[in-house]
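@channel sequence for tomorrow's demo:
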Amino acid sequence: MAKTKEWEVTDEFWSRVEPLIPVRQRLADQAYARKSGGGRKPKDPRLVFEGIVFVLRTGCQWKALPAERYGSASAIHARFLQ
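structure tokens (generated this afternoon):
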């Protein structure tokens, strides 16, 4: 079994956390500028969760998130605020 880092989410832990993460939905009665399915696809929820855990475990600033692994730090932070 490969050793994981403290902030990497194991499959066992993810199976317990995934049901707790709310599903992002479009409101039916709201007018949107883009049609459904337009724009950039949302990040994988597991990757977003790993980014949040990385910040909480290491104590680094949001902007210090490794972009090559997690992508935009502001996108991870925005999802954390939701």
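heads up for whoever presents: The chain has a mean pLDDT of 84.
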